[in-house]
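During the reporting period, our protein records have gained a structure token line. One record among many is quoted in full directly below:
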Amino acid sequence: MMNAKLKTFAEYKTEAHTWITLAGGEYYPDILHDACTLYEPVLVMFGKILRSSESSIRVLQEIGQVPEGWMRIQLSRVFRKYVSPETPVEMLKRKNQIQEICERFGKNFRAINQVQRAFDSRPIPDEALCALLWEYKDRGKKGYDLTSRFFEVFRKNFPDFIIAGPEGAGRDIPLGEIFTNYPNPRRPVDFIIQHQAKTVAIGLARYDSDRGGSQEDDRVGGYINCAKEILRYADKHSLKTKIIFLNDGPGLLLGSMWDDYAAIESIRKNRVVVTTLRMVNERITKQWLLS
């Protein structure tokens, strides 16, 4: 059982703002010079593709033929801004879905002559568009930083445990590689904690900058489903595996997010913990991990 003296995540709410970690940011318009330097080649290439294409569908097809992954993704983002803002971003990232995008969304693409006119109305480099693209550049980095810092704290506190997982950008760990015959083998997790060759905890990490509304509901709902799935497997196989949800950032202070995350712990109070980085020393104990 969890030590009765340990506070629940809900009990931190009265001083919630003192328990979150704020990641650093970049100032506007300071970023404009670097943004324009980075993305000017993207806009130049988009212009070339635009001028040599007879339709907006052809523009997207030509973008799909660009071999270099980073450039293709940036071109796809420019395409979305100019041609098809309703097309899901994640679909545009995958070149094998271009035909499907054309079939599903192509009829609503902005006409090629209108796109050309709009593109030509802006300077090269276009500071406004470069600033928008810059916002994507470090997306996810705060989450990577959070995980890396957690690993540092955990290894310092628990030198006799092993913590594994991507400490920056990298492949998540599918639970099928950790547990035999796991029912959802592709279930991704951010880290695992082992002690004497046994997996004692599974972890997911998230830095929320400004979440709210439906995004908040989706995140919490996904966490609940994940926790229940892992616990069902653990119960069936007589495992005492714990679940750690490492969440941080000012988004936790928005709407009902703090209460929603607190409710996750009620799924199994002695097996599930929600923690920010600043709470780790209090909330993650050797007694709890091995209980």
In short: The first strand starts at residue 162 and ends at 164. The longest helix spans residues 213-236.
